[in-house]
Amino acid sequence: MDYQRLLQDVMAVALAGERRGRPADYIPALAEADPSAFGMAIATVDGGVFGAGDWEVPFSVQSVSKLFTLALALAEGGDGLWQGVGREPSGNPFNSLVQLETEQGIPRNPFINAGALVVTDRLLELTGDAAGAVREFLRAESGNAAVDTDDSVAASEARHGHRNAALAHFIASYGNLRNPVDSVLAHYYAHCAIAASCRDLALAGLFLARHGVRADGSRLLTRSEAKRINAVMLTCGTYDAAGEFAFRVGLPGKSGVGGGVLAVLPGRGSVCVWSPGLDAVGNSVLGVAALDALTTATGWSVF
Ligand code: DON
Known about the structure:
Structural class: alpha+beta
Pfam family, one: Glutaminase
Radius of gyration: 17 Å
Distance between the termini: 22 Å
Protein name: Glutaminase
Bound molecules: 6-diazenyl-5-OXO-L-norleucine
Number of strands: 8
Binding site for substrate: 63, 113, 157, 164, 188, 239, 257
CATH architecture: 3-Layer(aba) Sandwich
CATH class: Alpha Beta
Keywords: Acetylation, Hydrolase
Family: Belongs to the glutaminase family.
């Protein structure tokens, strides 16, 4: 298959649509992103990497990092993680506080901010350096040693992080954090603020297409654990638009407010698309449109 041509074609379909979206501005550093940036990459389980547009330009991975913290926390600590975080869609915005009180400090799922804070806390407990573990994983899987936290983005998140600080303190009040709130927040911001390209993220997501096996052939997760991460991505990875994403794209996917979306084609490959303009829910408008066009053109789906 001519993957590069396929990517160019589906990006053109997305660009022909009328909607564009706006870059996130609740984290001021993200508002500086170029709204016209657009890139897409596919990495295949048999070793191919293909891209189009700005596929090699690093961007802020934001919540796409949550899929790697989840994978690493499960790999290091196993199923006990699920005692502190659920796996139900929240039907609420990614930074919502409302369910935490009625559900006694156990966040609905690992991909809303509340759940990601718990996962980051456990990864910090297990490794001593949660953000460092995510960076190392991304570097190893992508083969790109330059993948790193953008400290100016992390600092911008921290300065404007009242919501996340509120979530973390609230969770801590229920005894569901094992490290000091400030350390958990610092590691959370540092992994969200990692800069990586579509190429890097498509390669880093391949372990899910390989049912848990890393680039070097070692096993990170059991087949069952990898299936479960894909299932939680499908049901919760794009927040209160997860139903719409499953309807349009039909693949497990994880979005971030930097405009990236990483989707998994189990057994086949991994695809990452980036465009900073977001919809009201916080998902990339062109990113979702391009994935919709990709699966419509190819018939790729988990269904
Ligand atoms: O904590 C935040 O708000 C950001 N660091 C990440 C949020 C995010 O990417 C949600 N995704 N669409």
